[in-house]
Prior knowledge:
By secondary structure, the protein is mostly beta strands. It has 2 domains: 3-583, Methanol Dehydrogenase, Chain A (8 Propeller), CATH 2.140.10.10; 607-709, Cupredoxins -  blue copper proteins (Immunoglobulin-like, Sandwich), CATH 2.60.40. Helix content is 2%, strand content 35%. The longest helix has 14 residues, at 3-16. 57% of the residues are buried.
Amino acid sequence: MPVERRNFLLGAAATLAAVPARPDAPVPEQDVPEQSAALGAAGKDFPKVCGNLGNHNHSPLKKITARNLDRLGGAWHLNLEGGSTAAPQQSTCVAENGILYVQTTQQNVFAVDGRTGALKWKTNLGTKQTNMRGVALGEGLVFSTSGANIVYALAKETGQVVWQRQLITEDEGGGDTGGCDPQNGQCGGLTGTLAGAVVYWDGLIYVGMQGSTGGARGRAYALKAATGEVAWTFWACPGEGQFGNDTWEGESWKTGGAVPWIHPAIDPDLGLVYWTFGGSYPRLDGSGRGGDNLFANSIVAIDAKTGKRKWHFQSVHHDIWDLDNVMAPVLVDVRIGRGVRKVVVYGSKAGMFYFLDRATGEPVHGVTERPVPQDLRQKTAATQPFPGGAPFITQAPEFGKATRPVPFYAWGGLYTPHWDRATIIFPGAGGGADWAHLSFNPHTGWIYVGYGLINSGFSNSRDGRVNTSRPLGEYFAGGIAAVDPRTNKPVWTLDREWSLAHGNGILTTAGRVMFQGGPDGVLHAMDDTDGKILWSFQCGAGVHTSPISYEIAGEQYIAVLAGGNGLPYPDIPRGDHLWAFKLGGKVAPAAAPVPPKKRNDIRTAAVAGTTVTLGRVWDAANQRPGPAENTVAQNAMSPQHLRVPKGTTVTFVNPADNAFAHAAVSFFEYEFDSGVLMPGQSFTHTFATPGEYFYNDAIFPQNTGKIVVY
């Protein structure tokens, strides 16, 4: 089937599965069963990231309501790192007995008075920076990971180190021999780094890791909270003789990735920890790792005390799209028919949820294995699992939205394969819900999720090709959806200005307002029935953490760390702003930072001139086009970023010593089209109107440039 027709059909199929917009009339509430008391619940405290062991991200506090939001203001503000804008921040606060505990990327852990913002203590854990996503509290200790791959237990009252445990060391890899280290099971590739918020339960802490982009072999840890002794390790790429090893071709399991980089959920009644594991390595090239590649792209129910697998469910077989569906699972009791089912909510990037029985892994709304497009070179899986219900976003690019594909790329919907030709799909690696924390609201009975409307362009990364995961010049956007767990169908979706899938967690409250921040630094309060924005506050940097709520002396507070992020917008404003809000708060909002660009920009330095050489990478040191033709790089326009005054005539040249035809075509603005230029040919265009003009090569579309006319 021709690519154009295949792409049209894929897009049409996704459009047929349209999702509803915000309702004009309120949706009636449902009969929501009492949730398991064993999961715990937030209250005056917010004692763990996402609130409780079921990751509900809900507060039963209800003094802040839609009726009094006009009185909500800053209670206090603290620059944790002295106002630094050098690093992004992803750590969600926790609160206990009026004290907030939070980390920074700069490797500091803080205890802060939740009423005044006064610093109680600060402990530094080293200098090697990494993403820090939240501490755990238990047994009078604060548990944190560090960039040096050390787990720390700090005294809750003083911040002093009680114990520390090194988990991953530089010599853990198998080296060039590819052999496995007999002490720890690492079998080559990068060792990876610790990642995800720490979780405490019943004498153990649970710690994940990241590193699939470099071939780390994924593992999840449980440590004894009192001593730091490793209680068990669960290897996500099973070794020889272990269940699932036969789903990896040859020895590809040794560097298979499948890392658990977001924290798990725990069901104390069943004694199970639910952990989600990332995609396979190499991420985009499946040719050397035939098979389903367990436990990549899976949720695994693990015995919380022994580390033994109870059951698993794989959401993407043999992933070649970085659709890892890694997220903090949510445990919910749902009334389905006449009975109540205890389910775990799983899924994110693919734009649809799987509701699975917590005891057995059975899909409560069913799952159908559907045939998907194939590429023999990629050893693609013949089918992929689709849950009953409906996706909460469409699953192919849409020309009327931010997901309209950059021209000349091959493109398609979910599970469209790629090889050496860069191919755009949606949801992409940063689309869908990615790792934004969900919220379960027991008042509406719905699951709320932030999503991104971001395409990805994939190739096999061979021969100099790169993962053009966000094609230059494309637009970014996103939104928020409410999903009914009884049906696994969206109640409503709201497309919004920003992508809300990278740590932009949602907090719902018993006051019937919910809170979420965005990349522009604005924290919003919304009506939980329809998502209508009721209140907004500028925090000074992008909000890529979850808001929390706590109570001190009868007053309800909302708190959030605003520090920015590196994805999906490279220019998200960064900072170190820890905020608390209360009714009657008088602290004014921060000055609004420069918001991210809504288009994936070209950020190389601007060059003055009147000529662009096609198929060449700019030699910045000598200020001239490079000597060799390049057909795979995103920056194979020389210069890639040209700045000219209005009225300038620019010449586009395909050098005579290039081997291939090239073209320069302005997209979305449609300012110029060179047509096909054979080696030695050129084209001129005079720019009469100021503006930014993105263009790419119609033959090698990932080669992209920008001309700014002033």
